[in-house]
Amino acid sequence: MNYYSTNGKAPIATLEKAVVKGLAEDRGLYMPEHIKQLPQEFFDHIQDMTFQEVAFEVASAFFGDDILAADLRRIVDDTLQFDCPIVPVKDNIYALELFHGPTLAFKDVGARFMARLLQYYVKRKATTSGSVNVLVATSGDTGSAVANGFLGVEGIHVYVLYPKGKVSPIQECQFTTLGQNITAIEVDGVFDDCQRLVKSAFMDEELNRHLRLTSANSINVARFLPQAFYYFWAYAQLKRRATASLDEKGEVTICVPSGNFGNICAGLFAKRMGLPVSHFIAANNANSVFYEYLQTGQYQPRPSVQTIANAMDVGDPSNFARIYDLYGKSHDAIAADISGTTYSDAEIAETIRQTYAETGYLCDPHGACGLRALESQLQPGHVGIFLETAHPAKFRDTVEPIIGTTIDIPARLAAFMQGAKQSVPMSKDFADFKEYLKLKIEK
Question: What is the 3-state secondary structure (H, E, C) of 213-254?
Answer without folding.
Answer: EEECCCCCHHHHHHHHHHHHHHHHHHHHCCCCCCCCCCCEEE
